[in-house]
Amino acid sequence: MAEGKQSIKITIADRSYPLNITASHEEVVRAAVKEINNNVEHFMSRYANRDVQDALSIAVLEMAVSLIKLKKDNQEAAKFAGDLENLSLQLEEYINTK
User: Fold this and answer.
1) How many CB atoms lie under 10 A from the CB of residue 61?
2) Distance (Å, whole) CA 12 – CA 39
3) Non-local CB neighbours of 60 within 8 Å, separated by 6+ positions
4) What value does the mean pLDDT of the chain take?
5) Terminal CA-to-CA distance of the chain, rounded, Å?
6) 79 lies in which domain range?
């Protein structure tokens, strides 16, 4: 095992998976697993006639949509921050020339 890596076992929708991750990522991985399992349980209870694969697919789709929205929001926020920085520099320049 590589230095800084640890072996953990996660369970998603009643299937176990061994992973080798850095210790610093364990908390995030376990939180992601919990989120996935909560979403799968939600969809399984909501659509009782569907199988686990359907619930996993919808859970992944929902999480991917959220991630894409978050990335888009971050890009827009970064552009806005850049615009504000430029405006601030222009105002500073204007004040300094007066």
Assistant:
1) 11
2) 11
3) 36
4) 92
5) 65
6) 5-97
How crowded is the C-beta side of 68, counted as CA atoms within 13 Å? 6
pLDDT band at 64 (very low <50, low <70, confident <90, very high): very high
Scanning 1-97, the segments in alpha helix (DSSP H) are 26-46, 52-97
Please, which pLDDT band fits residue 43 given cuts at 50, 70 and 90?
very high
Which of 64, 50, 65 has its CA nearest to residue 13? 50
**Tokens describing residue 87:** 């405006």
Q: What number of residues does the chain have?
A: 98
Q: Specify the number of domains making up the chain.
A: 1
CB 19 within 8 A of CB 29: yes
pTM of the model: 0.72
Q: Which residue has the tokens 């919808």?
A: 58
Question: What pLDDT is recorded for position 2?
Answer: 47
Among 24, 33, 97, 26, which residue's Cα sits nearest to residue 63?
A: 33
